[in-house]
Amino acid sequence: MATKAKRTSGMKKTASRPAAKRSNSKTAKKTANKPAKDLNGSMLEDFFIDALKDIYWAEKALTKALPKMSKSATSSELKKTFNEHLEVTKKQIVRLEEVFKQLGKKAQGKKCDAMQGLVEESESIISETKDDTFTRDAALIIAAQKVEHYEIASYGGLVQLARTMKKNDIAKTLEVTLNEEKKADELLTQVAEKSINVEAAGEENDKEKPTLKESLISIFS
Ligand code: FE
Ligand code: ZN
Ligand code: FE
Ligand code: FE
Predict the structure, then answer these.
(1) 109 Cα to the center of ligand 2, angstroms
(2) What is the pLDDT of residues 77-87, one digit of tens each?
(3) What are phi and psi of 73, to 5 degrees?
(4) Is 19 helix (H, G, I), strand (E, B) or coil?
(5) d(Cα 57, Cα 97) in Å, to the nearest integer?
């Protein structure tokens, strides 16, 4: 502030221009001093870091959503699948923190609207389906698979970008997670097909299901 006042006092029309020029040359000097590395500080790298922040936020949101999904699931197998993926997710968060470190950036989340929507969808499924039904499990599996597919798209894109930017170590690290997400998706398909979907298909719609007492009365009257 003081420098600006000093400068403007002595100059007339061009007073504001030298200030801009000066700050520009300062930035140029800074970047010139840095060792020239592939695409560092590029627009693409900025986007890459933003995308990492997005998935970092998404993974963290999942560590909160998965316990709820597990708790609401009917079958012990699906509960187990969710619990195991929670542990995998925690490791993926650490892995992302390593990637931020490799980039010399602070691990930071940026709200992911897509993941927020997917988590909300799983919450509506829980509130709109009955407790202890396989129908809920069948629906929860699909909700979880939507999450996995979002993650597969995200990590798949990040791996591609990392390779393009010649950040091969980062590409390899992210590929480990990508493969875990693919495995999780396949596992969910297996769990659904093995029994849950069949059980759900055989479940009667008990919207107007009589209570046990009512059933007994109808049988014995
Ligand atoms: Fe994940
Ligand atoms: Zn996201
Ligand atoms: Fe996103
Ligand atoms: Fe996942």
Answers:
(1) 10
(2) 999 999 999 99
(3) -70, 150
(4) helix
(5) 12
| Three-class secondary structure assignment of 106-169 | CCCCCCCHHHHHHHHHHHHHHHHCCCCCHHHHHHHHHHHHHHHHHHHHHHHHHHHHHHHCCCHH
Please give the average per-residue pLDDT across 169-194, as a whole number. 98
Vertex 42: Cα angle to 39 and 98 (nearest 5): 70
Rounded to two decimals, the pTM is 0.77
Q: What's the chain's average pLDDT? A: 86
Return the CATH class of domain 43-200: mainly alpha
Distance 39 CA to ligand 1 centre (A): 27
Q: What is the whole-number distance in angstroms between the Cα of residue 134 and the centre of ligand 2?
A: 29
Residue-wise pLDDT tens digits, 8-28: 444 444 444 444 444 444 444
For residues 55-70, give the mean pLDDT.
98
Tell me the C-alpha distance between 55 and 57, whole Å: 5
